Every structure is written in C-alpha cells, then in structure tokens.
Amino acid sequence: MATPYGPLEAYLQESSTPYGLYGRAAMRSLINGNLSYVSGWLPEGSNAYIQTATATDGVVGYFGGSRILATDYGPASYGVQHNAPSNGTYGRFGWFNGLTQLFYPDGSGWFPLYFGG
C-alpha cells in the first residue's frame, strides 16, 4: 500500500525449526526490504485466508493474508483488507481470525493500494 513511509506490504517471515515451521508477521518496505514486526514467532499452518471478510467496524471487503499462524486468539492471518469486496482502491493492515471470522484492523488507517511500478 502507498503509505507516507513509502510502499508497504503485509509479509510473513518464516523459519524451519526442529519443532516445525514458525512465522512472524510484519510490514515490509518495498523500497529497502526492511521489516516492521507485528507479531512474535508463532507456529505456522498450511493455508492462508483469502476471502471477503467483515471487519469489526462493519466494513466488508476482500482480504488477502499470509499463511495462518497459531495465535493466543485462535488461527489468524495477517494481511490487507480492501475497501470493497472486489476492485477496492484502498486497503488497511490487520488480522483475520479464523474462529470469529472477523477482520481486526490494526488502527493504522486506510492507504491507497499499490500495485508496483
């Protein structure tokens, strides 16, 4: 997304351990690759949530997220919710929870979607 800090994307850093695959969610700069972590290391599942999602504030929009992580609140995926079910022009970062089937925005606000260039 096009933010005041430059283009950012939702990102999942992964690590294979003797206990299985672990991941930590982050925002990643598309300019220099720097990561800003939004979670610690968590056990990783196999799929991602990519679907239309209702947010806790009632907004319904397409959600594209990372692989599922085992959080204290149930299986969840960090990603971006668009401002429409399809063809959105803005997005916001947050978590989609598999138990509640709700998107929880992180509070950073809406940003224009960025598709490279």
Would you mind describing this structure in some detail?
With 117 residues, the chain is an all-beta fold. The chain has one domain (2-112). 0% of the residues lie in helices and 65% in strands. It has strands at 2-3, 6-17, 20-29, 35-37, 42-55, 60-71, 74-82, 90-97, 102-105, 111-112. Strands 5-6-7-8-9 form a 5-stranded mixed barrel. Strand 8 (90-97) and strand 9 form a beta hairpin. The protein is globular. The mean pLDDT is 94.
Q: Which helices and strands, and how do they pair?
A:
Elements: E1 2-3, E2 6-17, E3 20-29, E4 35-37, E5 42-55, E6 60-71, E7 74-82, E8 90-97, E9 102-105, E10 111-112
Parallel strand pairs: 5-9
Antiparallel strand pairs: 1-2, 2-3, 3-4, 3-5, 5-6, 6-7, 7-8, 8-9, 8-10
Give short descriptive properties of this protein.
10 strands; 117 residues; mainly beta; 5-stranded mixed beta barrel; single chain
Rg, nearest Å: 14 Å
Envelope shape: globular
Helix percent band: under 10%
How many individual domains? 1
Q: How many DSSP E strands?
A: 10
Strand order of the largest sheet: 5-6-7-8-9
Alpha-beta classification: mainly beta
Largest sheet report: 5 strands, mixed, barrel
- The ordered string of helix (H) and strand (E) elements is EEEEEEEEEE
Overall pLDDT confidence: 94
N-C termini distance: 12 Å
pLDDT < 50 stretches: none
Condensed summary:
By secondary structure, this protein is mostly beta strands.
